[in-house]
Please model this.
Amino acid sequence: MPYSSREAQDKRRAFLDPRTKLVLTALLAVFVMGGLGGDRMKAIKACLSALPFLLLLAERKWTRFLRGLVILVLGYALLYVMPYLPGVLRHIALFCGGMLTRFVVTVVMGDYLISTTTVSEFICGMEHMHVPETLTVPVSVMFRMFPTIGAEWRSIRRAMRMRGIYLAGTKPEKVLEYQLVPMITSSVRVGEELSAAALTRGLGAPIRRTNICRIGFRVQDIVLLGFSGLTVMTWVLICAGVTG
Model:
């Protein structure tokens, strides 16, 4: 069967360009999590909130989609039952529901960005935007660090469960000592190893790096970037008093 690096990169190419993902993440952080625009942009915010879940479906990330959707539904359920709760419970439900409905959407978008973007694609996108390497190198290390730390945490939990050390196990008082302490130590080690790996791959070198990964704007990128521009333009018009 014929093979080429170009064919391999086409097969593993993500649904969106990494630059489009960064724009959408920033947009959700500002308008949905930050609440910019208020109730006058409620319809646009609803569309923005649905985007991360649609993108997860497009990438066939079923587990991440269901997990984010369950948490979001839980947030809206808390807001729905909030008026019927007494006293302190009403305030707790309002706080938790508001936090979940605002933060979960942006967190899901960030999760989508990290899980569907390789370090090479991210660096290539940053180079196309002429971002300085003083910013590109640390962020690229973080891109690889979060999934690695997640894998380390799951491995530590599995090992401790075999020894009966978990909250509902026979030694719940040992959770802090035998799970969190190894996790902190492992995080430091992972950060040092990833920094060394980044330098070994030539990040921060004085010469220009080459990339075999393929990125570029396609139809879906143009549509979503156009929608992002429309969102910003709508906010500017609202601030200028042109539309209400």
The chain has a mean pLDDT of 82. The chain has two domains: 14-118+216-231, 130-212. DSSP finds nine helices and no strands in the chain. The CA atoms of residues 75 and 99 lie 8 Å apart.
